[in-house]
Each structure stands twice: as structure tokens, then as C-alpha cells.
Give the backbone structure.
Amino acid sequence: MAFLEISGITKHFGQGAGAAVDDFSLSVERGEFISFLGPSGCGKTTTLRVVAGFEQANAGSVHINGAEVSSVPANRRNVGMVFQAYALFPNMTVAENVGFGLRVAGQPAALMQARVAEMLELIRLPDYGRRYPHQLSGGQQQRVALARALAVQPQLLLLDEPLSALDAKIRIELRSEIRRIQQELKLTTIYVTHDQEEALSLSDRIVVMNLGRIEQVGTPFEIYNYPRTAFTASFVGHLNLLPVQVTDAATGACTFEGTALASSQPAPNKQAGSARLAIRPEELVLGGAGANRLSGRVLSVNFLGNVVRVRVRVGAVELSVDMFNERKLVLPAVDAQVVLSFPAHACWLMD
Amino acid sequence: MTKSRFNPWTWLWVTVATLYFFVPLWGTFDFSLRMKRGAITFLAYQKVFADPKFLQSFRYSATMGVITVIVSIMLFVPTTYWIHLKLPRLRPVVELLTLLPFIIPVIVLVFGLIRTFSRPPFRMTQTEFTTDILITAGYVILSMPFMFRAVDVGMRAIDVRTLTEAAQSLGAGWLRVLLSVILPNLRVAILSGSLITFATVVGELILADFLVRPALGPYMVVVGGGKAYEPAALGILSFGLTWICLGIIQLVSRGDVRLQPIGR
Ligand SMILES: Nc1ncnc2c1ncn2[C@@H]1O[C@H](COP(=O)(O)OP(=O)(O)OP(=O)(O)O)[C@@H](O)[C@H]1O
Ligand SMILES: [Mg+2]
């Protein structure tokens, strides 16, 4: 059995309401960093709260380190939690906040002080022990909240959108900090976010959720490059979708407005008819020699720094094309006629 | 913001309000000093303090006030906490319930209390001690709107639920959460609720009168009926007491920076 075993968790809020979480099962190995990724209201927080013990599931079970915890109250699960709203105790100093869990556990003062100092060192705020939460920036408050959760050496760390109240720059800084600390302590971690960049850059594995169900579980590479459902494909990263007619379901051949296109996988429903062909913007090349070629007209060119995003109208649809920036790059002109190409292995058919 | 300070209209209204408020007060105070014809003396105050019945009734009312405050805190802090945490949908109902003392006249309350609890099986008006229990219960009900509201506002200012969960995830049980996390963050709220409760009890008339207890309210009525200057002095004294209470609230809530809402 895995270190954390979530089996068949289902949670309804009241009669008649749909399931907030529907038959959620997941095995997490010790030391793994897992992200729950999904749109607002898909049940990420609810699942996390069931694991933490703040919410009672209607069905299913949670095993932590081999022990079934359904009847164990939150304060006896030894599961650390970091909240979006920081939730530092405003009446206590930073040091008292970090030491709270140790005080509750009845640790001797000397040990507590040493541990608090160690934690403040870990979050790189060694001189802030005597401050009060309101004297800290949001980013610092969240670091302290992290230190507070880690001080009691939880067997599991849960973070619920810990960075979403912070601004972009601190968010990126702090997320690598979280990853560093997690790796240093080899801590089993579940991280809830609706920011795909965060999930992709931090996680060992991502759980993509929608409407209370798991859509797909996989490494960031798998989730991004081999999305198994239409939802995952369009939620993670940008996706171009071409309405096509499948001509050979077995080989994945199809036509788009009369142009024959090849994909390397068979059609998902194994039959000819209407389908959609999916391609990531970075797989499309202007000009180029890919097997599939489409011609269109440039609508707009957006310079985004490291990437240039070009919008091209091809027949009835608009496609996004991403090009890596380089100093010798020649940007296409708006209204210019261009040819797009992409290899067969870069695209796949969806219903 | 700074500019509006110099707005003449602001000053006009401040002046009008101040006059409205202070002129009668000054009048009463001035009157209370004129017990001796043609001189300004504190004679009325001396007489008030010289009356053993004053000190007796003040001591009684103050004691009841403190007891009421303690009972109110023990009753309303956990209740409000529980409502915020587990039954937020019930909050409007409870809020309405706590407003009942404003709607139902005290006289109705006191008759209800007497009719219910003075006959068997309770017979609570037969000894002083049980009557005091009864009157405390009445005081708790009368001060309920203030106490509940103060605690409720205090709880809304902090994120009770998340703070509770944060403490729980660190291993704290219910009592621990309430005592080390919730209560300290409600200090100002509880204090202001307590002082208003105290002031309400000390000034209360009807309950004590009908339950025949030696409280300050009935005493003031008796004095007011037969004398001229002493009631004015008493009025100023009780006003001063209220002001001291309010001053303490101000002082504490301003002095303690930690109790400000969580900063950015
Ligand atoms: N206490 C509650 N009472 C009733 N319904 C709830 C409660 N908590 C959550 N829900 C419902 O359950 C569903 C899942 O909510 P949840 O908070 O888990 O979403 P989420 O994925 O965390 O979303 P977000 O990204 O917005 O935080 C939502 O439809 C929500 O309205
Ligand atoms: Mg959430």
C-alpha cells in the first residue's frame, strides 16, 4: 500500500446537491509532490479537507502510512496544512506561531526554541521571530505559515492555493522555495492550485480534476504532451482544435476543408465521421516541411518576450502558432499568406 | 481625507452636536454643585457618599454586574464560536433571538420570571441567594444584545474557521483552540461587551425593583423622589462611570496593535 492511499472518496454537501468530490482514488508514494489542478469548484479543496480531517467523506477511505484515518480527528492526524489566507495567529509573534504546534505537543522550551530557529532559518527569515504577523508582507506571512506547519514534522503536508493571494513575482520565488524545502525534507506533499504553470513546474505528478472527478493523473510531461481527455488537453496549456472528418479511423487519417491530414494515433471512437484534431501552438511551424500543411492568412502577431504568438486564419478556424524568439527571427506581416506545417506525431484526434 | 478636516460644515455639526450633548450635562453638573445657597460645593456628592445605602446598593449592583459579565462570557463566547464554525446558517436566527430584549419590555420579562420561578417546583424568590440567581439570569438576557453583538463582530473580524483549522492541524484540541487562539483575538470585543453589560446591570431598575433586591437603580429612584440635589450628583456619577468604561474600551483597543486585523 502506498504511503497515502485515497480510495473512492465521495462527498456531497447536503441532499440533492451534486457530488463535490466523486469517487476520487489516488495513491501517493512517500516523498512525492502531487498537485491537484482544476477549475474553480472542481473539488480540490474538498478532497484536501477530507485528507486533513476537516471534512467527513460520504464514502471511501483514506489511509496514511497504512492506518485508516476516517475516525481520527484532524488534530491527531499529524497532517500539516497551509492555507491561502495564511491563517497566522494574529495574537502571537512569528516565533510563537511557529512554535505553537510544539507547545501543544508539550515539548520542552529549549527544544522548542531550537526548532523554531531552525525553521526560521529554513524559510530564510531568521531575524523575524519577534515580529507580529501584521508586520510582515504577504509573502513573508506565507513563509511563516509554512514554517509553522513544518515545525511539528508532519507526515503529510497539504497546501491549498498557498500562493494565489500573492503577486506574480513573489509567487514564482516562493514556489521554488516550497519545492526546495519539500525536496530537502523529502516531505510527502499535496499542493492545490488552479494555476497550471505552478502545477507543471512543481509537481512530480499532477492530478487534473473536473466536476469532482479525476480526469487524468500523470507527470507534468505526460499531462501536457499526452492529455487523455479533451478537458485535460484544453485546460493544461493552449490547444488548437480543427474540426475534421475522419477518413480512416485505424490510421488516424482525416480531412480538414478538403485538405488531407495525417495523425499518428487511431481515432478515439474507432470510427469515421466528425472529430477534432488537436495541436499545440508550439508544434505548428510557419513554412517548414511537416507532413501536414495548411495555408492561411496572418491575423495578428503578439510579441511575448521569449515566445512570439501568431494568430492565423485557416479556412473557418483561427490557429495559434508559437515561435521561439531569437534575434534573427523574421516576424510575419499581418495579412500575409503563410503555410503552416506540423508532423503527424504532433497532433491527435479527439471526439 | 486630510482636506475634509478643514471643511467648515464638519465643524458646524461637531459644534452643534457638542452643544446638544454637553449643555444638559453641564446644567446638571452645575446644579449638583449648588446645594448650599450662594456657594459652589461638593456637598451633594458628600451626602451621596455618606449614605450607607448608596454604597450598599452600589456594591450589590457592581457585584451582580461582574457576575453577569462572567456568565455572559461563558455563555456567549462558546455559543457564538460554535455558530460561526458549524452553523453559520443559524446566525441570523440567533441574532434575531438576541434582539428580543429590545422588543419585549423588561416588565414583561420580570413578570414572566416571577410567575414561572416563584412557584413550585422552583420557589426561587424565597431566599435571597436564589433570587440573585434569578436576577442574574434576567441581567444576562437584558445584556444579551450587547454581548452577543460584540463577540459576533469580533469573530467576524478574524477568520475564526481558518484559524481554528490551522490550530487543529497543529494538534490543538477544542479547548486549546478556544483558549489560546480564539479568546486572545477577541479580547477587545469581549471587553467592550463586558463593559456595556456591566453598565447595563448597574443602571438597571425594573428587574431589581420587582425582585426586591437592593440594587443601585431602585435606590436612585428613591433618592430622586425625595431630594433635589443628590439625584443630580448621582446622575453625574453614573455618567462618569459609563465614561470610564468607554474610555477603557478605547484605550485597550487602540493600545494593543496586535489586535488589529491581519495586515498585508
Ligand atoms: N461547505 C460547503 N457547503 C456546500 N457546498 C460546498 C461547501 N464547500 C464546497 N462546496 C461545493 O463543493 C464544490 C467543490 O468545492 P471546492 O471548494 O472543493 O472547490 P475547489 O476546487 O477548491 O475550487 P476553488 O479553486 O475555487 O477553490 C463546489 O461546487 C462548492 O460549491
Ligand atoms: Mg479551493
Summary: Confidence is low (pLDDT under 50) at residues 257-264 of chain B. The pocket of magnesium ion (ligand 2) is lined by residues A 44-45, 160 (CB under 6 Å). The first helix of chain B runs from residue 8 to 32. Residues 35 and 43 of chain B are 6 Å apart (CA to CA).
